[in-house]
């Protein structure tokens, strides 16, 4: 059997929102710092969030998709949405009685959705979308024996193809301990409270409830234990309530139905079997009663808390972990962003992490690791995703200017200065005239005129822009614009 994790190496998105057809490569952790980190960078409206949500749908299953997708999510509403993820080979044990002890091999996951043609049988209100999520079989597509040999049918001696019922996606079946996927969207508060859809906090509370119930069973606790957990503040609060509305309500309820048992109706503060179901996070000093909820601490704090919570949960649980994070820098000051970058790099040793970001503070720290994909719009209105080659332009790479230019196609004065100065230092070009002669040898002509103290000098465009930056007091020359800065920057890069 193959116990490899179901980390996605290649993501294919067809007909989902701004994507007509696109393939994106993702990094897979190998134990080294930042190895499992993939960055999505690019300007607004280029599909970074849509790619994260495509990954979330890939693992989320049919029910989630049918309750969230709408016809507006289709790039072309007459075609189906198709999302596929290629993985290393992993094995799934059969759950059918007839094939007990057998397994089959998979090489990925697939999700598809299309507008529904007819109502679901037995349902008054059907979702307008029909969705499917399933495992992708390897090239063999048959059952295997526990020793790795193909399972052969007794009568014919042929291999037996995998029953389609077993292909329905269940992330708990992947590998020996399943895979846990956490999607941190831009709604930070949602991850620290319970919600209509299962949130990160819900998953944590479910786990805490399970541990609590397990302890109850092991200790055979019952009335005595319930009494202990409702002492002091709970008793005082409940007593206050029961003396008033609560007591009257139970009496009237009992009288109405003529049922003495209904007198036990109580206004409860917590579920005694699921005490964490109504839990919330708050800052409270040990000897104080006032609680400051995380919502009051700021949305930047909320993401860090959610990340630390899932980390603690995952450390005590089993299974592989995938984190999808949209703009983690939101509402975090630069120092906190750098600390968050270090946390993500550490997590990416063993977890697959996909991050969409616009922050040069985060990117400057992260782009040296994993994989970076740059999203951009094409002239025809489509979306293009290009994987950026590793390494930088300078020995000190990446600089802020370099990050902004590569990730967001934004030329800056700082980056131009870095390029020009590095060119001089690298090739021992002491004067600007030396730089222009070097550039000429690279096919970059001296075709601009620079005027200083009434004297004209022919210079390259790169030197002209450099002079404009360094000598703003010289008003004898037309200044540069952003387009000229962009062209000059690209020329300097080509000359390196």
From TrEMBL:
It comes from the Bacteria. Residues 287-363 form the ATPase AAA-type core domain. Residues 10-133 form the Rad50/SbcC-type AAA domain. CDD domains: ABC_ATPase. It holds the Pfam family AAA_21. This is ATP-dependent endonuclease of the OLD family-like protein. Residues 157-168 have a biased composition (Basic and acidic residues). Residues 143-170 are annotated as: Disordered. Gene3D superfamilies: P-loop containing nucleotide triphosphate hydrolases. It comes from Rhizobium leguminosarum bv. trifolii (strain WSM2304).
């Amino acid at each position: 059997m193959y116990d490899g994790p179901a980390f996605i190496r290649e993501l294919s998105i067809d007909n989902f929102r701004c994507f007509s057809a696109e393939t994106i490569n993702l990094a897979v952790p190998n134990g080294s710092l930042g190895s499992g980190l993939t960055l999505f960078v690019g300007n607004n409206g280029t599909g970074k969030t849509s790619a994260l949500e495509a990954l979330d749908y890939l693992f989320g299953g049919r029910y989630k998709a049918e309750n969230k997708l709408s016809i507006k999510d289709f790039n072309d509403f007459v075609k189906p949405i198709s999302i596929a993820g290629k993985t290393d080979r992993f094995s799934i044990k059969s759950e059918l009685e007839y094939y007990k002890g057998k397994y089959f091999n998979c090489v990925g996951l697939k999700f598809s959705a299309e507008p529904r043609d007819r109502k679901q049988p037995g349902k008054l209100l059907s979702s307008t979308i029909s969705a499917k999520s399933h495992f992708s079989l390897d090239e063999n597509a048959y059952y295997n024996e526990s020793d790795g040999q193909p399972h052969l049918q007794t009568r014919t001696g042929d291999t037996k193809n995998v029953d389609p019922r077993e292909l329905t996606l269940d992330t708990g079946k992947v590998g020996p301990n399943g895979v846990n996927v956490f999607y941190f969207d831009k709604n930070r508060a949602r991850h620290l409270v319970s919600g209509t859809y299962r949130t990160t906090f819900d998953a944590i509370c479910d786990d805490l409830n399970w541990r609590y119930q397990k302890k109850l069973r092991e200790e055979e606790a019952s009335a005595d234990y319930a009494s202990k957990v409702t002492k002091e503040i709970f008793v005082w609060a409940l007593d206050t309530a029961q003396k008033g509305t609560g007591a009257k309500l139970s009496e009237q309820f009992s009288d109405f139905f003529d049922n003495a048992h209904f007198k036990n109706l109580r206004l409860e503060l917590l579920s005694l079997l699921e005490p964490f179901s109504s839990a919330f996070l708050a800052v409270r000093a040990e000897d104080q009663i006032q609680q400051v909820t995380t919502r009051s601490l700021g949305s930047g704090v909320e993401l860090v808390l959610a990340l630390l919570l899932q980390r603690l949960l995952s450390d005590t649980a089993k299974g592989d972990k995938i984190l999808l994070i949209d703009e983690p820098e939101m509402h975090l000051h630069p120092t906190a962003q750098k600390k968050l970058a270090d946390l993500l790099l550490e997590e990416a040793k063993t977890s697959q992490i996909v991050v969409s970001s616009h922050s040069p503070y985060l990117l400057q720290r992260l782009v040296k690791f994993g994989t970076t994909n740059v999203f951009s719009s094409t002239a025809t209105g489509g979306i293009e995703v290009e994987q950026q080659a590793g390494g930088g332009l300078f020995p000190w790479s990446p600089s802020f200017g370099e990050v902004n230019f590569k990730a967001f196609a934004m030329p800056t004065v700082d980056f131009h200065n870095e390029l020009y100065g590095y060119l001089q230092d690298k090739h021992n070009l002491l004067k600007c005239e030396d730089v222009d002669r070097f550039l000429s040898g690279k096919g970059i002509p001296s075709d601009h005129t620079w005027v200083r103290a009434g004297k004209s000098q022919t210079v390259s465009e790169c030197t002209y822009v450099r002079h404009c930056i360094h000598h703003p007091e010289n008003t004898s020359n037309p200044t540069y614009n952003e387009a000229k800065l962009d062209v000059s920057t690209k020329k300097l890069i080509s000359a390196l």
